[in-house]
Design goal:
This protein is α/β, with parallel strands linked by helices and about 210 residues long. It has five helices and nine strands. The chain has two domains: about 55 residues, Urease, subunit C, domain 1; about 140 residues, TIM Barrel (Alpha-Beta Barrel), CATH 3.20.20. The strands form two sheets. Strands 1, 2, 3, 4 and 5 form a five-stranded mixed β-sheet that branches. A four-stranded parallel β-sheet has the order 6-7-8-9, with helices on one face. Helix 2 packs parallel to helix 3. Bound molecules: zinc ion.
Length: about 210
């Protein structure tokens, strides 16, 4: 991994309960912050990338705690509806016709948009999860991925199996991509469905991601 030196940035620092913005250099070694000092110039090896951050803020990445990553392509297309009208008449019928390729490119677009505005970690809840994971790997973004489980048609077991099959194809050495179990919501999941997702989360020690 290439080391990184960020010079002359306005660095956002946290001290006690205060936020300070100070002009500092930051040295990143082996992917971790090694030093934050007024000026770093020592022993810079050949393989270091230097970024001049003058007039820029340097801060931790933002975290998007709830996303449906590919859905940004629907932005400004279905405003002004009630929740159920929006879900039943607009969004779900469109989602039923999405192809895997469309999900992949829509996910790329959303990841690029989030990265370009400072979000580096995303907690997602959607389906066609392989394509979302492929896009996350391509963008090297940190993501918590799942396969949403609903029970509006009484068929939660199929979706639960889909999640398990997807989770079983994970790369255990992968640092940036992790998983959650995601019952969609209290209004689209039966008691049995919620219980089954809770059991699975406990079994595999995974977090739960649900709309409340
Ligand atoms: Zn949501």
């Amino acid at each position: 991994m290439q080391d990184l030196l960020i010079k002359n940035g306005n660095v956002l620092l946290f001290k006690d309960d205060n936020i300070l913005i100070q002009n500092k250099d930051i040295l990143v070694k082996d992917g971790k912050i090694a030093k934050i000092e007024d000026e770093i110039s020592e022993n810079l090896n050949q393989n270091i990338k230097v970024i001049d951050a003058k007039d820029h803020i340097v801060m931790p990445g933002l975290i998007n705690t709830h996303a449906h990553i590919p859905m940004s392509i629907f932005r400004e297309t279905t405003e002004g509806c009630s929740l159920y009208e929006w879900l039943n008449e607009k969004i779900w019928p469109i989602e039923d016709s999405l192809t895997k390729e469309e999900i992949y490119y829509a996910s790329l677009l959303s990841f690029i948009e989030m990265l370009s505005t400072g979000t580096t970690c995303i907690n997602d809840q959607y389906f066609m999860s392989e394509q979302i994971r492929d896009a996350a790997r391509k963008c090297k973004v940190r993501a918590v991925i799942t396969r949403t489980i609903m029970d509006t048609d009484g068929n939660y077991k199929t979706r639960l199996e889909e999640f398990k099959n997807f989770y079983n194809t994970r790369d255990e050495n992968e640092d940036l991509i992790t998983y959650s179990v995601a019952p969609h919501s209290l209004y689209t999941c039966s008691g049995a469905c919620l219980q089954a997702t809770a059991d699975l989360a406990r079994e595999d020690n995974l977090p739960i991601h649900v709309h409340c």
